[in-house]
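Module 6 notes. Inverse folding takes a fixed backbone as the condition and produces residue identities as the prediction. Think of it as a translation problem where the source language is geometry and the target language is the twenty amino acids. Below is one complete input and output pair. Work through it position by position during the lab.
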């Protein structure tokens, strides 16, 4: 029964509200217009103050997507025909180049999940701006009075109101500034990720190059060593040398086979690492890699440091974060200002019979009385309120926190700048050292080692030297040849470190 009564009361209320809207909406046009004006003003005031954030992110991502090939040309070395030192087996053909470093970089810039993640993060940061610069949702309130309030204009039993909270406009501006700087910092973070991925591709590529050249040289030396074994066996058969000469050569041949097993395993691992950066299955085949000339450029440290100070995305990201924290300090100070609430209320008046006093006994006439209650004229009101920011300890704490955050970001900028300067100087010195080392191996050490081996081999055949001396000279030639190509690979790996530390590729700096 109680449920039936409640449902019946609700139905009657809905009917009365419907009658109210139907009978009064034309008569109360201008109060309704005031309410509509309040609502529209709230919507306009709540619009985003930074409408171009999404376009800025989209333009940035699109520009970099269109320039992937240009980026690759900047970061990748073009194929060359280098002047390589003599190989132990000059007749060995080099494997054909199926893919270039440029191909790997283009694919990485297009497919690497870390880059895609950074792009989506930047897009998400841009969507934050519209949220923090909009006003809170308007509040709609309804009051139903169980016992109507009797007034001269009728019985009031229903009140409908709408209100909007308006913070100080600068609060929204500062909040939008924070979100905008976070978006720009995310874009710089995207560029950091791109630099890191490109550098990792180059490091993996040239580590693979070192392994490939080691495998190639080791296989060449296997063929050369088999020739030595034949020479030793011929000397033993002629009775001029002991049997252990051929056995020593056979042991060295077995040792080369063991090294090949290790090198092939390392190649599989390094190729899987490269495929990971390209978002390809680990078992995807990576063909033998190309050879590059020794770099000739002598880069100036001061110029590189100045370039990094202007161009490195990590420093630009921290600059945006400093600006973000400056907005945060100002926003915290604005907590001393109250937020204002503006609202509109509509009070529905139910018509009722006017009170009619009895006639005056002396005159026989009824006194004049107001009859507004018979019309049920609705009332309306504009409401206004504001918050009281009286908890000063909370406000002061927020300001102090924002200041400490700003100081911490500035210190992070200084630490990052110091780290980048160290990385540039360290990488540059490694580039110079590896360049000089490769030049020394290629022009002096390897030719001398080859000549020494050839002389010792001829002396052994003539019976003037020991076989251990031949093996020792052969081993030195092998080691120096591998070290030459390792120096070339480490040179390019150091260049990748240098480019990542600068924030630009050497071709973009005008360096070869």
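Target side of the pair, the amino acids:
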């Amino acid at each position: 029964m109680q449920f039936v009564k409640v449902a019946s009361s609700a139905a009657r209320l809905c009917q009365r509200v419907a009658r109210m809207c139907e009978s009064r909406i034309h008569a109360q046009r201008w109060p309704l217009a005031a309410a509509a004006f309040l609502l529209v003003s709230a919507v306009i005031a709540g619009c985003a103050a930074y409408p171009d954030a999404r376009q800025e992110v989209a333009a940035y991502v699109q520009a970099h997507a269109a320039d992937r090939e240009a980026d690759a040309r900047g970061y990748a070395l073009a194929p060359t025909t280098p002047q390589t030192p003599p190989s132990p087996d000059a007749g060995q053909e080099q494997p054909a180049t199926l893919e270039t470093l440029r191909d790997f970089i283009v694919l990485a810039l297009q497919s690497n999940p870390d880059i895609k993640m950074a792009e989506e993060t930047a897009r998400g940061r841009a969507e934050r701006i519209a949220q923090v610069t909009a006003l809170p949702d308007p509040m709609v309130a309804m009051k139903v009075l169980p016992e109507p309030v009797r007034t001269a204009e009728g019985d009031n039993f229903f009140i409908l109101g709408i209100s909007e909270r308006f913070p100080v406009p600068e609060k929204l501006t500062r909040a939008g500034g924070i979100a905008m700087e976070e978006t720009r910092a995310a874009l710089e973070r995207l560029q950091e990720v791109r630099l890191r991925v490109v550098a990792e591709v180059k490091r993996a590529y040239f580590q693979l190059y070192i392994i490939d050249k080691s495998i190639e040289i080791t296989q060449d030396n296997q063929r050369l060593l088999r020739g030595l074994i034949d020479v030793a066996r011929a000397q033993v058969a002629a009775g001029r040398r002991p049997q252990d000469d051929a056995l020593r050569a056979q042991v060295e041949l077995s040792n080369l086979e063991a090294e090949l097993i290790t090198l092939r395993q390392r190649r599989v691992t390094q190729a899987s690492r490269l495929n990971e950066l390209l978002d390809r299955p680990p078992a995807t085949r990576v063909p033998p890699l190309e050879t590059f000339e020794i770099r000739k450029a002598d880069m100036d440290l001061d110029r590189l440091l100045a370039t990094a100070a202007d161009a490195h995305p990590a420093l630009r990201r921290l600059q945006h974060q400093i600006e973000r924290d400056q907005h945060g300090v100002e926003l915290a100070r604005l907590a001393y200002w109250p937020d204002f609430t503006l609202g509109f209320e509509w009070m529905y008046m139910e018509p009722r019979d006017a009170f009619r006093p009895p006639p005056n006994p002396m005159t026989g006439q009824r006194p004049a009385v107001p009859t507004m209650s018979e019309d049920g004229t609705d009332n309306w009101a504009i409401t206004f309120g504001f918050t009281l920011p009286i908890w000063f300890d909370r406000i002061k704490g927020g300001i102090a926190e924002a200041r400490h955050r700003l100081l911490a970001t500035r210190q992070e900028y200084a630490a990052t700048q110091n780290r980048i300067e160290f990385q540039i100087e360290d990488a540059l010195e490694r580039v110079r050292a590896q360049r000089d080392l490769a030049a020394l191996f290629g022009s002096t050490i390897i030719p001398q080692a080859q000549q020494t081996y050839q002389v010792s081999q001829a002396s052994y055949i003539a019976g003037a030297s020991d076989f251990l001396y031949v093996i020792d000279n052969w081993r030195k030639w092998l080691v120096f040849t591998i070290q030459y190509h390792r120096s070339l690979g480490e040179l390019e790996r150091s260049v990748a470190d240098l480019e990542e530390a600068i924030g630009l590729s050497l071709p973009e700096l005008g360096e070869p």
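Reference fact for the lab report: Residues 35-134+167-337+389-509 form a domain with the Outer membrane efflux proteins (OEP) fold (CATH 1.20.1600.10).
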